[in-house]
Design goal:
Number of helices: 4
Largest sheet: 4 strands, parallel
Strand order of the largest sheet: 3-2-1-4
Structural class: alpha/beta
Helix content: 25-40%
Strand content: 5-15%
CATH class: Alpha Beta
CATH topology: Rossmann fold
Order of helices and strands: HHEHEEHE
């Protein structure tokens, strides 16, 4: 993944383009992400007990933590997030591990379009461990 990111960064620099890192983990993207998540929260009409998601860069978990401050955010570390502490993402974020490395495909299915290397791994953990009124924030859908 580091090689792919470097090549993308080099390409963007040479082409005069903006490089967007995985997870769009940029300060400029955070406010629009949180605003959209707050719209979803209003449409739900309730604050879920738990919000489940996958975590790579941590951007998604960090934004969900701000948009759903009264909910427990359960982030399943897939890839880069395993290098970070949950508190770095928000006070209500709980990190979970997956036994699979990023490059390993999850062979279990999900009831929605999902990436077998990423959000499907989080779905499997959420389906097994979620309690109360829970939602799953899908990435690949």
């Amino acid at each position: 993944m580091a090689v792919v990111q470097k090549r993308a960064r080099d390409y963007a620099k040479g082409a005069g383009a903006l490089f967007l890192p995985l997870g769009f983990d940029l300060p400029a993207a955070e406010d629009p992400f949180v605003a959209f998540m707050q719209q979803v929260r209003r449409r739900l009409g309730f604050a879920p007990d738990e919000v489940w998601c996958c975590a790579g860069s941590g951007m998604l978990a960090r934004c969900l933590s701000k948009a759903f401050p009264e909910s427990a955010i359960h982030a399943v570390a897939v890839g880069l997030a395993s290098r970070h502490e949950a508190q770095a993402f928000g006070p209500n974020v709980i990190m979970h591990a997956t036994p699979l490395r990023f490059e390993q495909e999850c062979r279990e299915g999900a009831p929605f379009p999902s990436c077998p290397n990423y959000d499907r791994k989080a779905w499997v953990v959420a389906a097994r461990e979620a309690k109360g009124r829970s939602i799953f924030w899908n990435v690949a859908g």
